[in-house]
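Re: Re: ligand-bound prediction request (bumping)

Still looking for help on this. To restate: I need the protein modeled with alpha-D-ribofuranose bound, output as structure tokens. Inputs repeated here so nobody has to scroll up.
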Amino acid sequence: MKILNFGSLNYDYVYSVDHILIPGETGAASGMQTFCGGKGLNQSVALARAGAKVWHAGMVGEDGGALLDLLRQSGADTSCVGTLPGKSGHTVIQVDKKGQNCILLFGGSNRSLTREFAEEVFRGFGRGDMLLLQNEVNDIDVLIEMGHRKGMRVVLNPSPFDGAVEKCDLSKVSILLVNEIEGGQISGRKKPGEILDVLAARYPDTGVVLTLGGDGAVWQGRGRRIGHGIYHVPVVDTTAAGDTFTGFFLASVVSGKTMEQALETASKASSIAVTRKGAAPSIPTMEEVLSYPFGPPESAGPSV
Ligand code: RIB
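Reply:
Sorry for the wait, this slipped through. Here it is.
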């Protein structure tokens, strides 16, 4: 089974700040670094570093060389990434002293996908392959339809959530990975248990991963819910923690691991990611996840 990840590739301009600025405020940054990122690229890197075979599809600008190099060095296939005149996507990210972030996104070439380009990419994939999507490229509703029509297993991480997600037919999604805010926006509920109840009623054939920050994560599928707690680590930068979780979770699932094992591996990998600066550079390899001296999780996980 092949994994096709149709997603964004960004340069992240990361500013270290004392606190995240409020409207009207001007503040000095104590440091600035540039990293490769983008939810799409990060998830392809995480999949590849977890040992999965992944094809990244998307669009970079003429300045996109370092993004492609990073994907290749991590083990992802870049033959489905096109190049356009103009700028790649980029972000401006503030990271505060507690490692929390705030991200301003400029889509750039990520927003220039055409139906012709997508049809050409999909030609190399078929029934039983997996299609992974986030919401940083244009027309994800169309990509869901195209993947579903091909008989692919569609996986959606609808992040960042906006009106484009509301146009998607989520009944065509096999696995939906959401955090509490995205899950709340889709379901209209706030409490984790209620979010899961609504999603199960509306999309009975869709497996759901609900991540709950410090409270861990829950898998819901085939009438079962399985929770997993988080690991105690020093937090430096939370950027790409969710992407790391997604990549390691899916790599575990496609390699035949149980949902319990997939949640454990994904939680450990994202815990390592928050101990390091930047997006893609913070994502560990599977070897690092297996050898990191974790204690037991802080709790059994959310009780929903
Ligand atoms: O999820 C983290 C990513 O979100 C960053 O790398 C940034 O590019 C934004 O897309």
